[in-house]
């Protein structure tokens, strides 16, 4: 019996699980990023939204993001068991049975989409449903195991939350939300390829065709740098399109320059200890948080200034 067959044989035993195990299935760190970017998308959208409806929208998006994580952990249990970074997750470690993870993810998916649709709006709910499907089926079941472009294409799922937040607030998809989508979409490859550079052994053991394992480290480093050159100006577009102030423009340009510099060091300083790659991975997390935090702060400040009659 293969690893996957043994992990998915739900009739052999019942797992003894805790609330913490089910919470871990939600991929809380990934969920937190999705919730934060969705919240920013909702807040920067024009017009006023009922606070109660806004809370419902963000809660539904959070549950949907967690549901996608649970479905990912259910399907990826076999390869998660082979990688040091993921071997202690609830399913491969045996703390949660595969059938429990699958049922948990499906129930939360249906609940989050229906809640968002009925109480907030069906455009936002449709985008949430598509995000869950894209992450759980297109990325997890297909792209991840079949192409080194898995992160590039699959990054669309992680880039959709701010569009969902915007749609929840406005009932539409504006050019502004597309820009927010692009920022995360172009951020994803250099972020994950930096991780893949220093975790190449894990991915090789699991048979996942990540870019360093397929194209080699030199090619991956060049592509990381190319994506950083694309990302930096895209991060400034909210100012260029006039929905943020010049202060955001300066800060985003500075952050983008830092991203390019970090990627440049990955390109030109090969290091067996992968210090430049690890530094870029850490900086990329800071960059995305800072960009969206600045978007939020700038929007709040501009509205306060306008309401004061400035």
Tell me what the structure shows.
The chain is mainly α and 310 residues long. It has helices spanning 3-8, 19-25, 28-44, 51-75, 77-80, 98-119, 122-146, 150-159, 161-170, 175-198, 200-206, 211-214, 217-240, 246-268, 275-307. The longest helix is centred in the last third of the chain and has 33 residues, at 275-307. The model is unreliable at 6-15 (pLDDT under 50).
Write down the CATH topology of the largest domain: Tetracycline Repressor, domain 2
What share of the residues does DSSP label as strand, in percent? under 5%
The coarse silhouette is: flat
What is the rounded distance between the termini?
71 Å
- CATH class value of the largest domain: Mainly Alpha
Largest sheet, in brief, is: none
Average the pLDDT over all residues and give the rounded result.
Answer: 92
Fraction of residues in helices?
over 70%
Strand runs, count: 0
Structural class: mainly alpha
Residue runs with pLDDT of under 50 for 5 or more positions: 6-15
Q: Describe the oligomeric state of these chains in a short phrase.
A: single chain
- What is the string of SSEs from the N terminus onward? HHHHHHHHHHHHHHH
CATH architecture of the largest domain: Orthogonal Bundle
Count of domain modules: 2
- Superfamily (CATH H level) name of the largest domain: UbiA prenyltransferase
Number of helices: 15
From the alpha-carbon coordinates, what is the Rg to the nearest angstrom? 20 Å
